[in-house]
Specification:
Order of helices and strands: HEHHEHHHHHHHHH
Radius of gyration: 27 Å
Strand content: under 5%
Structural class: mainly alpha
Number of strands: 2
Number of domains: 3
Helix content: 55-70%
Strand order of the largest sheet: 1-2
Number of helices: 12
Distance between the termini: 62 Å
């Protein structure tokens, strides 16, 4: 509908349904179609556009459609693999392959579908053969859409910067790139973390230091796909980066408790770093750059504007004396 309005020369805006509903309830107005229409007509006259949400352009929606299409195919692939395992389980077949769908495992499955094989019943052979045919077709479709996603990510400089983050592969980088769409719509990293459902919320006044927080959750209003992507990336970042490993160990007491909360804390930091990398258009570095006035281990000062020794302040007063 927004595309049709835009094509007609109008300027469409999207309203947050939860905020508008809360505004109606706060005014004590009963819900009806006419009331909703009247409230929507009042929104543009508000002094602040508290009600407006970002309208993703067609290019961003196309990127998200490609991403979700691949996620659907991967889910279908996982379901087919589970059904193949179920067929073997029903017939009491125990296999010792670490990867049943690798080269050796697929050879084993093909032998089970041979007409002269008596390990499976006729219905079992036909069922297994059909599942394998579907699995091959789904894999070809996943490979096709994967090549398209790689091309799109390689053409975007933001995608390359996101891939410089520890734990962010090219697929997770594309997910983050497509779901965020436009980094300028977030005022700061805190807003992006909240949108990514990585900011724990609680209703109680406090928690003891020696106990896990109770009643605390990461929220429900936001992008769940972004939450999944950053938490998946946090698993790799904790293994590859000393910085994120320190955050994880501090939250989990060295990995002894609350590991899931530790990964959420690492994902929160990963989200903050991703905002800076994208916003400032820089590649991620494990070692932060030097500040003005700092010296390296050899005693050399920074090439930036000279600072007063030990103060980290420029060599001029902060205010002009009268």
């Amino acid at each position: 509908m927004s595309d049709e309005l835009l094509a007609a020369g109008l300027d469409p805006h999207l309203a947050n349904s939860r905020k508008v509903a809360a505004w109606r309830e706060a005014r004590g107005i009963a819900k009806s179609d006419r009331t909703d229409a009247d409230l929507l007509s009042e929104l543009p006259s508000q002094s602040e556009r508290w009600w407006e949400v970002w309208l993703a352009p067609p290019a961003v929606r196309d990127q998200r459609e490609w991403m979700r299409y691949r996620m659907t195919l991967v889910g279908t692939q996982t379901g087919l693999k589970n059904r193949i395992h179920a067929v073997l389980h029903r017939h009491g077949i125990v296999q010792a392959y670490s990867d049943l769908f690798g080269v050796a495992g697929r050879s084993f499955l093909r032998d089970l579908t041979a007409p002269d094989d008596i390990t499976l019943s006729r219905s079992g052979r036909m069922t297994l053969s059909g599942y394998l045919t579907l699995l091959d077709q789904v894999r070809r479709m996943i490979a096709q859409v994967t090549r398209e996603l790689r091309k799109q990510l390689n053409r975007a400089p933001e995608g390359e910067r996101l891939r410089s983050l520890p734990g962010i592969s090219w697929m997770l980088g594309y997910v983050i790139f497509a779901e965020i769409g436009k980094i300028e719509r977030f005022a700061n990293a805190k807003h992006l973390c909240s949108y990514s459902l990585l900011v724990p919320r609680a209703h109680e006044t406090g928690d003891p230091d020696d106990e896990s927080p109770k009643g605390r959750h990461v929220g429900h209003v936001g992008r769940r796909t972004l939450k999944w992507a950053f938490i998946e990336g946090a698993h790799g970042a904790v293994c590859k980066s000393a910085r994120f490993r320190t955050i994880f160990d501090k939250r989990t007491d060295g990995g002894k408790r609350d590991k899931n909360r530790g990964y959420i804390a690492a994902a929160h930091e990963l989200c903050r770093v991703a905002y800076v990398v994208w916003k400032k258009q820089v590649m991620y570095s494990e070692t932060p750059g030097g500040r003005p006035g700092q010296t390296d281990r050899a005693g050399r000062s920074s090439k930036r504007r000279k600072s007063r020794s030990g103060m980290g302040q420029p060599e001029h007063p902060m205010v002009v004396a009268s």
